[in-house]
């Protein structure tokens, strides 16, 4: 479905981003991986994707908190693939604490990585997308882009902001064959959430084993984690030609949480 397309997926060495990058490669797209982790493991992922799917897969260690890194990464993807058709702004971090205890540097880092990085990358790739009259921008927000939970002030602020950014971009570029949408997942069991279970236990003063049942899935009506594969399938649809009219949307995939 994505043959001859090329994509940048930020934060794709783990979790949701890796799932989306894998699904894109399986659909025939060249993919630029990005994110942190063990260099040998990342190289093994890169080679496996190339071997299994017969596409070009590259890697950039760009730090999404650094605008200069983001521009270098975008230029690298363009040079390697000849163009960038699809961008998934997925890289994200979390820090759970009451607002008086949120360290200033966590606020700055979460806003930079979860929100400002999307602005910088969109700005870098739009001229090429406009020139080719085709582009897909997918922003991975969260149910926390649509609603709030206590102890997540920078994350909720950044994710609400990401939806606003995505809608604004969508309106600006709609006549250029470019869409911009936000996916708003409920809880997905990735390393980011594994860490939160311990953090939430501390913030709420409850046992870690009760966090999943009583905090994370309490409003997720389906009482199941969302899966990476489900999210990747939505990203593939948004990236396809069939997604042309879906733009400026904030798409909840949260087991009913945001309608509770
Ligand atoms: P994860 O921790 O498994 O993966 C995060 C990825 O981002 C990793 O590849 C990591 O290396 C990368 N990353 C972190 N900081 C970076 C930086 N400064 N520069 C470049 N890359 C960086 O997390 P995940 O659960 O897969 O989350 C992915 C996205 O989905 C995040 O934006 C998160 O907010 C969002 N999300 C996750 C859930 C969930 O329940 N897991 C729910 C809603 C939204």
TrEMBL record:
Gene3D superfamilies: NAD(P)-binding Rossmann-like Domain. It is an enzyme of class 1 (oxidoreductase). It holds the Pfam family adh_short. GO terms for molecular function: 3-hydroxybutyrate dehydrogenase activity. InterPro entries: 3-OHbutyrate_DH, NAD(P)-bd_dom_sf, Sc_DH/Rdtase_CS, SDR, SDR_fam. It comes from the Bacteria. The keyword Oxidoreductase applies. Keywords: Oxidoreductase. Its EC number is 1.1.1.30. NCBIfam families: PHB_DH (TIGR01963), PRK12429.1 (NF009093). Belongs to the short-chain dehydrogenases/reductases (SDR) family. PANTHER family: 3-OXOACYL-(ACYL-CARRIER-PROTEIN) REDUCTASE, 3-OXOACYL-[ACYL-CARRIER-PROTEIN] REDUCTASE FABG. This is 3-hydroxybutyrate dehydrogenase.
């Amino acid at each position: 479905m994505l043959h001859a397309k090329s994509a940048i997926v930020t934060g794709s060495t783990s979790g949701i981003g890796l799932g989306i990058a894998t699904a894109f490669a399986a659909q025939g797209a060249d993919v630029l991986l990005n994110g942190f982790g063990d260099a040998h493991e990342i190289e093994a992922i890169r080679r496996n994707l190339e071997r299994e799917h017969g596409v070009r897969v590259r890697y950039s260690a760009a730090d999404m908190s650094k605008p200069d890194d983001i521009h270098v990464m975008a230029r690298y993807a363009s040079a390697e693939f000849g163009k960038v058709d699809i961008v998934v702004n997925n890289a994200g971090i979390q820090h759970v604490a009451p607002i008086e205890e949120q360290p200033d540097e966590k606020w700055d880092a979460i806003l930079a990585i979860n929100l400002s990085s999307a602005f910088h990358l969109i700005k870098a790739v739009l001229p090429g997308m406009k020139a080719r009259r085709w582009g897909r921008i997918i922003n991975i927000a969260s149910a926390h882009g649509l609603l709030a939970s206590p102890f997540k002030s920078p994350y909720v602020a950044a994710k609400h902001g990401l939806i606003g950014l995505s809608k604004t971009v969508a309106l600006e570029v709609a006549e250029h064959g470019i869409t911009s949408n936000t996916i708003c997942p409920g809880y997905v069991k990735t390393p980011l959430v594994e860490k939160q279970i311990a953090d939430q236990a501390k913030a709420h003063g409850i046992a870690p084993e009760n966090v999943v049942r009583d905090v994370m899935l309490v409003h997720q009506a389906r009482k199941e984690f969302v899966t990476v594969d489900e999210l990747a399938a939505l990203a593939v649809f948004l990236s396809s030609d069939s997604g042309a009219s879906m733009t400026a949307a904030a798409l909840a995939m949260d087991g009913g949480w945001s309608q509770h």
